[in-house]
Amino acid sequence: MSTETRKLDRVVIRFAGDSGDGMQLTGDRFTSEAAAFGNDLATQPNFPAEIRAPQGTLPGVSSFQLHFADYDILTPGDRPDVLVAMNPAALKANVVDLPDGGILIVNTDEFTKRNLTKVGYDSNPLEDESLERFQVHKVAMATLTIGALEETGLGKKDAERAKNMFALGLLSWMYHRPTEGTERFLREKFAKKPDIAEANVLAFRAGWNYGETTEAFAVTYEVAPAKLNAGTYRQITGNTATAYGIVAAAQRSKLPVVLGTYPITPASDILHELSKHKNFDITTVQAEDEIAGIGIALGASYGGALGVTSTSGPGIALKSETIGLAVMTELPLLVIDVQRGGPSTGLPTKTEQADLLQAMFGRNGESPVPIVAPQSPSDCFAAVLDAARIALQYRTPVLFLSDGAVANGSEPWLIPDVDSLPDLQVEFATDPETFQPYSRDPETLARPWAVPGTPGLQHRIGGLEKQDVTGNISYDPENHDRMVRLRQAKIDGIEVPDVVVDDPSGEAKVLVVGWGSSYGPIGAAARRVRKLGLPVAHAHLRHLNPFPKNLGEVLRKYDKVIVPEMNLGQLALLLRAKYLVDAVSYTKVQGLPFKAEELQDVLADVIKGVSA
Amino acid sequence: MSTETRKLDRVVIRFAGDSGDGMQLTGDRFTSEAAAFGNDLATQPNFPAEIRAPQGTLPGVSSFQLHFADYDILTPGDRPDVLVAMNPAALKANVVDLPDGGILIVNTDEFTKRNLTKVGYDSNPLEDESLERFQVHKVAMATLTIGALEETGLGKKDAERAKNMFALGLLSWMYHRPTEGTERFLREKFAKKPDIAEANVLAFRAGWNYGETTEAFAVTYEVAPAKLNAGTYRQITGNTATAYGIVAAAQRSKLPVVLGTYPITPASDILHELSKHKNFDITTVQAEDEIAGIGIALGASYGGALGVTSTSGPGIALKSETIGLAVMTELPLLVIDVQRGGPSTGLPTKTEQADLLQAMFGRNGESPVPIVAPQSPSDCFAAVLDAARIALQYRTPVLFLSDGAVANGSEPWLIPDVDSLPDLQVEFATDPETFQPYSRDPETLARPWAVPGTPGLQHRIGGLEKQDVTGNISYDPENHDRMVRLRQAKIDGIEVPDVVVDDPSGEAKVLVVGWGSSYGPIGAAARRVRKLGLPVAHAHLRHLNPFPKNLGEVLRKYDKVIVPEMNLGQLALLLRAKYLVDAVSYTKVQGLPFKAEELQDVLADVIKGVSA
Amino acid sequence: MTAIDLGIPGLTGIPTTDEKQTARDYKSDQEVRWCPGCGDYIVLNTMQSFLPSLGLKRENIVFVSGIGCSSRFPYYMNTYGMHSIHGRAPAIATGLAVSRPDLSVWVVTGDGDALSIGGNHLIHTLRRNVNLKILLFNNRIYGLTKGQYSPTSEEGKITKSTPAGSLDHPFNPVSLALGAEASFVGRALDSDKAGLTSVLRQAAEHRGSALVEIYQNCPIFNDGAFDVLKDADEAQRRIINVVDGEPIRFGREGEYCVIREGFGLAVAKSADVDASDIVIHDASDLNLSFALSRLSTQDLSHTVTGVFRRANRPTYDDSARAQVDAAKAAKEADLSKLLHGKDTWTVVG
Amino acid sequence: MTAIDLGIPGLTGIPTTDEKQTARDYKSDQEVRWCPGCGDYIVLNTMQSFLPSLGLKRENIVFVSGIGCSSRFPYYMNTYGMHSIHGRAPAIATGLAVSRPDLSVWVVTGDGDALSIGGNHLIHTLRRNVNLKILLFNNRIYGLTKGQYSPTSEEGKITKSTPAGSLDHPFNPVSLALGAEASFVGRALDSDKAGLTSVLRQAAEHRGSALVEIYQNCPIFNDGAFDVLKDADEAQRRIINVVDGEPIRFGREGEYCVIREGFGLAVAKSADVDASDIVIHDASDLNLSFALSRLSTQDLSHTVTGVFRRANRPTYDDSARAQVDAAKAAKEADLSKLLHGKDTWTVVG
Ligand SMILES: Cc1ncc(C[n+]2csc(CCOP(=O)(O)OP(=O)(O)O)c2C)c(N)n1
Ligand SMILES: Cc1ncc(C[n+]2csc(CCOP(=O)(O)OP(=O)(O)O)c2C)c(N)n1
Ligand code: SF4
Ligand code: SF4
Ligand SMILES: [Mg+2]
Ligand SMILES: [Mg+2]
């Protein structure tokens, strides 16, 4: 073979095709191969809002991007180094992101007149000069796949459907990936249809062999395993990590979990995942709506379970009255918001961070709730465990703000040792002698959790204002004022770790503050500007309410504070109001994560501005 | 007669009794007498959360306070000069507010052992020394009333029920009030039961005569008419003024109004009032819940009516998802929140200002809405008209934040000339040639209002993100960002009048900023401290979103900005975040309006602190 | 000792006590705050008198209510209780019932709470057959908000919110519940202690959702709504109390009866018809139950009381627990194994 | 010219046109984006073919939907339309209908949209009898959120959210609607253009709320849910199409029929029974309609199609307008007078 092998430290590949082309599966498998190989990686799927938009159309394009590297990376990559386009629509929708010189692998079979017209191509881009600036590989993937499967006796249509595995095989060859995992996976997945399994394996091998035997590809690439911390890893998406975190909370608190929820994109997978783990004493109830979902969760908490409800922004709007009841009754409750593009139905399959202020303030009256946000897919596990800790220990609803990017993105996760997880056990009230429904723990200000069935503790709770200590209804003005402040003080006093500032040089004058899923792009951008010799500090907030105790001090240390957000400046508003610091927003609300590149430019400009 | 007559500039009277004692009616009538006499006045009813709490108990106490004066006053008064207590519960619940030397008129008939024990009096306060510091008048009102009605043949129980009119008669005598109005009123009210009407009139006269003929009262009082602006006045509550404002909006816009709503305290009276005015092309729909209520209003707006929905805090929580839809579809909609004590069910009959941040932020995604708040009962009229102007002109939901104090309080209202009211006429889109569902008026950024039935303008709207101009569904990242910012810009660009600062001396270094119903107490407190020689400036915000353009400039002019609120500092948070001004909160969350006295102390302290 | 010993399906799993209980034991220390004469008092008393007969541990009884006058009920019961938010009690109680097989969970709600804002939760609870006893205090008015018409108010009702008369055609709560697949529906009058107790007992003994409509007088805002049923003479002509398995006769000496008419039912004089034409109540026959619900007209010409329907089907909470138990039995709760999943790789330090 | 001329109550007040319309006129310029083979396509085509026959002005037709696959319907109709939020379309459409007598308002909704989150609005709309035509696309699954079970899914259904099988007893949408006082309920199959058209026409002509349940296949997440009704042979044995006033027979040559059984109905061979025993459909008889709804079992052994119920009662929107009109006629809209009220006083400057 005349192919040359080049070593790379990182590669971003994007598979793009029609919704029906199986791009998510293809991407997933490549990810698993990279993981098995020991690369660090991060992924970002992107699918249409329609279930199945008409074939071959722009709205019907589905794509999956993955970034793998020989070092620890933070994002799924701004733009692909390699774009695999299964049809004209996929090409059109994605080619803008491919940088000059990028590798473009195209399935030529779909570039028919009809398909081209469907997406508004006047001439065939494979035949004009419009793709000149890329390294274009034209491969008749469908034809080659059908050819490879001729022997199997499979119908043409069925055979053609395996072309995504052809693409995967080809890319696996190009990047020297291990293949056993994929073959095993395919055999398991199609265990009930062995002929389909075999067809997919054959297609996969055909793709590999196509690379190996044709001379179309002059170069292959190697990306060495990453030097990650020692331990056992797996790949995990944010929604799965969230679900696992809830399972872990059940185990560590020794409480049953009741999830009351209503399906909604992009949160539904949390329900789907949890519904598989009933053996951990987890009950999932698909309720009639979001209000019932949270009601069921709250009822279960009242009964002594850990009540959990999961939804996305519009569902939080509906749950807000019941969150208020949970604030008043001071019961533990985990409320998960996987944020998506808004307002209203908005962009249901896209990501956004625009529910922060809704989470803070979206209820009548003074109704404070703690807010926790994960910073990456795998971080959902630890973050949701921490949210559960707060809920259980402080007897309060907790808002967990994930988002579409975190929920569907994936990355390797260093699987924690189960025994090292925090102990979340709580004590129920049992002593009729000392019991008062609204007495408070002097440390946490939590009231006792007295579950029905406990002899002698019969009492009544509800949404009307409570008398301090006794919990009886009280319309007394001073008592109301006192209770409003007590509820606030309880939340303000929640123990959260200090925020840690990442400033390797210690010389930064500019601080970039982020929260939630922008951790990756901000972190990557910070690394980049530092490489340019521009020091920058990065503080990333997991706790949005209460803020870490050291936050004010941290903010005041810097000449300039910049807050990138996928909203119009919601965290910035809170920081400005609380600390009177002139935090400057950088906002983008495109339904997409930030790119490290754009943040690099923004940060560099700010840093230069400050030094100038 | 040996009674002396003293002239006073102002008096605060509080009638207090059992819920069944008719205190609200008594207060209302005295108010009407004061109004007819030409005093300025302000009132504040206070009733129990229960419909009829058990007779004679503390929770069953109902009271009505009114403040009348010979000059323009701003509040219903901090504390009564005169307390009328119809039973021990009323005494116990209210006597704490009576200042030393205050006049206490007690209905002795109810001070039985049983009634005293019921409210925890160990000994009869009328017989021990506990009331020594007041001018106590013990009157056997029930006995005297029954006596006066002996001739009528009315049963004892029925006769006794007129004792509130006895009290009213007595007080009317004491304050030289005109009596014809009340007699006429009673005859009208009980037109269908002439014997009851006569009994009430007799009791009223008996009370008057009791003052006139016994020598129990050595002093009577006169409060001269106030020198108010010329014009015709009436007395009006906030909820009535709000309802009238909506009627006026219908008339001035020449549009039908559809109120879709669900009853809730303290907003229900807006529904009750509007349901009487169908002749103004007003349809009221009592829906199955708050969500349906706002849905109906929005559907009506879509059809070309002015859709209105009214509720209180918990209802806003439920409506938030639909408010988001109105933001996205950019249709006019008036959303009225009569705030009450929260969180959750909270203190349903009490007042609070704690829904400001819910109004601002209580929806998923970036979902800006204008917010307007009235500053007094009569101001509801003009303020809600202005809210309607914004809704219609800018095609947006508008949040109108009234509260329990404003809603149920009353004051004289200089009835405006109907022709002087703003013209709210709008133009519907009609031209198929130029029509684009999401094109925008260059001035207001409003999109066209194209109502079904218009030939050639068929189009579809909805909650998914819209393409700029065409309004087609769009998942395009740049378009989403653009639309998010356009919606924000539309709200930010709403024309609202500059805030006017009240600083008579022009020498103030301290600015007190308020919003909504705290106008009265803040204004009164400002007057008081100025009388003490301490200059203070007062700015009161009607527009909370967007803020008046000059607000930043105003805030920065002062050494100190203090923001009294009946919440934990919600406006202060917005001011701090937006203007980076160290606005300091003074907060009280007792379900009661501020007292001028306490604010006076707060302001005086701050002013002295600044000058020191 | 648990109630399962008693063989009462509705009480299976709830701990019982041998201690003697009286009505007083069920009175809480909170002062009752309804208006004088409110029908809620009698229902409260009936409930407090009835509960001791179940012999359950008091701490294993929970009342969950929404918002409304009637929803204050839990405060007055010396059991566990939650006064929740408007319309949502069935959902909250569902969460409680699903998580706790050892509780007897009662929902207290009003015609507004249950049928207006809470209508959806009610019908879903019924179709799911969650093990809840739902007491619907129907006074045909919104009491707590001071007198607006409700979804059970008659058409044309003049109230504060409808000065020209209401326009909505009311729900027939029993028809609605039956259309929503309810497994148990009963009705009683607030003033009929014996009848109410009997329905409450049957509800308690039923495994699954039991909806009990209670006609309740609101003397303040809708006084006398059910007066025709309380007048002794009128009651004889109007109240049709049904008992499963028995011919449907009513009147002082059974002088009236119910017969078939088309696909529905009609009232006849017993003397005028053949005994064999008198309909025999069968609470398991949904079509009959439905027809009985239509015989109960809004104007109370006739009102059926007793248990309209009783059917056995699996309850949601029992089934949910069974799934969890089956999963536990089938698969160990090994967290570490779960977290590892199928595909892991190890980095050696 | 308005439809009132045509004497069709359901279309009273809606302007008509003499222009000839075709199905094409009702197609919007938006690309249809359902999955290939989705039943929604056929319903859309049927609607587009059917509407021209009403002769209404297109601009006076509005489609309001909630959220779900089916709720994308309005985008494809060249009429006015609103794709609103999940479950709330009936409420929004009510506001529109109340304010605009000149519009023909259609609601498009799914089994999740209408019966899960939107259940309460649906039942209240039906009892109020708002002049809306509600098309419930029942595919027995949540399509848009990718395949969770719905309130019409069969018990034990394995879906993404119920890997061990669903536990909820499903609604029978027709029973529910009848229990909620619906004045018109019909049912049709997506694939039966003639049958669907006939039900749509009767719905359009009905004054008041008309609920039309449409069995709709979701080939992606619940493929074949109604296949037994689409197999020509099976369909003969299973589909019972009812026509008001006609004996209920079905099968290729009417070889099956419906007879009474207890208080309900049963299927028999026509040959085995007396012709006089065959039930004659009467859409105004609620008890019969309800019994027919129970004959339609979840497992589709039998499925009744056609119009179950049609009853005349005042509609909410007509009555609301009548009240406004009466008020206008009775009392001048004099704002100044209103503002002055009864008690004023004048301060002379
Ligand atoms: C979200 C919300 N909306 C409205 C209310 C106001 N509200 C309280 S109870 C009630 C209706 C009460 O009627 P019903 O359920 O019949 O109970 P009743 O008072 O007649 O016993 C209403 C509208 C509320 N508390 N919360
Ligand atoms: C408030 C809210 N909750 C949940 C969702 C998510 N959601 C959208 S459609 C849908 C159910 C769709 O099922 P159905 O009504 O049967 O419509 P289909 O897609 O099957 O036509 C759900 C749960 C949403 N969009 N909004
Ligand atoms: S208002 Fe009516 S229902 Fe409410 S407590 Fe009073 S009497 Fe009872
Ligand atoms: S998911 Fe099902 S219902 Fe939705 S468009 Fe596809 S086939 Fe139709
Ligand atoms: Mg009621
Ligand atoms: Mg569906």
Question: What features would you describe in this structure?
Answer:
Chain A has 612 residues and is an alpha/beta fold. Chain A folds into four domains: 4-223, Pyruvate-ferredoxin oxidoreductase, PFOR, domain III (Pyruvate-ferredoxin Oxidoreductase, domain 3, 3-Layer(aba) Sandwich), CATH 3.40.920.10; 234-420, 3-Layer(aba) Sandwich (Rossmann fold); 427-495, no CATH class; 501-611, Rossmann fold (3-Layer(aba) Sandwich), CATH 3.40.50.920. A seven-stranded mixed beta sheet of chain A has the order 11-10-12-13-15-14-21, with helices on both faces. A six-stranded mixed beta sheet of chain A has the order 3-4-2-5-6-7, sandwiched between helices. In chain A, strands 18-20-19-22-23 form a five-stranded mixed beta sheet, sandwiched between helices. In chain A, helix 1 (23-37) runs parallel beside helix 6 (163-174), helix 4 packs across helix 8 and helix 7 packs antiparallel against helix 8 (194-213). The radius of gyration of chain A is 26 Å and the shape is globular. Chain C has helices at 39-50, 89-99, 111-117, 119-128, 173-179, 193-205, 227-230, 232-238, 286-295, 316-330, 335-340, and strands spanning 61-65, 80-83, 104-110, 133-138, 184-189, 210-215, 239-242, 249-250, 256-261, 264-269, 303-310, 344-347. In chain C, helix 2 (89-99) runs parallel beside helix 10 and helix 3 packs across helix 4. Chain C has 349 residues and is α/β, with parallel strands linked by helices. In chain C, the strands form two sheets. An eight-stranded mixed beta sheet of chain C has the order 2-1-3-4-6-5-11-7, with helices on both faces. In chain C, strands 8-9-10 form a three-stranded antiparallel beta sheet. Chain C is globular and about 95 Å long. Chain C folds into two domains: 3-225 and 314-330, Rossmann fold, CATH 3.40.50; 240-302, no CATH class. The longest helix of chain C is centred in the C-terminal third of the chain and has 15 residues, at 316-330. The mean pLDDT of chain C is 96. Chain C contains eleven helices and twelve strands. Chains in contact: A-B, A-C, A-D, B-C, B-D, C-D. The structure holds thiamine diphosphate (2 copies), iron/sulfur cluster (SF4) (2 copies) and magnesium ion (MG) (2 copies).
